[in-house]
Amino acid sequence: PPVILDSSNCIITASQINCSCETVGSSPMLQWLVDGEQVNQSNNIIVLNEPLNSTYLRSIITVNKPQAKHLSSLFCFSFNSVGSAGKQFWVDCQENSADKKLMFVSIATTFLFLSVVCVFLFVIRFLKLQLNNVKNTVAEKRKKVPDKEEDAIYVNTRNLRQAK
């Protein structure tokens, strides 16, 4: 049965993803799957097979970045009449990393904004309570201070009439 060698790997560049899959076995065949679907040659995906002899096969897949933007995995599947082997390559494109960073910054900014709003509301509530306490204290002091009663003035109205 075929065996996929440890030298199989992926290299991500600014414009492409290049993965190589090396397999040994009796007349091995090789097939690539992109996100679980069989690869079709196109302008964005190129597959080159390099058989070195009847027991060794190297296959290189090149995926251009526009196609790779939403790519998450590549799978190398080697098979022959005796059995099969496979290797999964997890690919994290720079655009996906940039999207994750942008999402993190957005979440952090939203959290910071909501925190500032909460602190602002807390300060307003605190100041309102303080103002109410001051008003209540002043009102209580006013209640405690008795109004001065003025001395009653009694006038003899008879005497006032006589004075006129």
How would you describe this structure to a colleague?
This protein has 164 residues and is α+β, with helices and mostly antiparallel strands. The protein is built from 3 helices and 9 strands, in the order βββββββαββαα. The strands form 2 sheets. Strands 1, 2, 3, 6 and 7 form a 5-stranded antiparallel β-sheet that branches. A 4-stranded antiparallel β-sheet has the order 5-4-8-9, with no helix packed on it. Strand 2 and strand 3 form a beta hairpin.
As a percent range, the share of strand residues is: 25-35%
What characteristic shape results from the CA principal axes? Answer: rod-shaped
Number of DSSP E strands: 9
Report the total helices.
3
Q: Helical proportion?
A: 25-40%
Give me the strand/helix succession: EEEEEEEHEEHH
Largest sheet: 5 strands, antiparallel
Q: Show unreliable segments.
A: none
Mean pLDDT: 82
Q: Using the CA coordinates, give the radius of gyration.
A: 43 Å
Provide the fold topology.
Elements: E1 3-4, E2 9-12, E3 16-24, E4 29-34, E5 37-38, E6 45-53, E7 56-64, H1 65-68, E8 73-79, E9 84-90, H2 94-144, H3 157-163
Antiparallel strand pairs: 1-3, 2-3, 3-7, 4-5, 4-8, 6-7, 8-9
Summary tags:
five-stranded antiparallel sheet; four-stranded antiparallel sheet; 164 residues; transmembrane helix; alpha+beta
Report a brief summary of the structure.
The protein is of the alpha+beta class and 164 residues long.
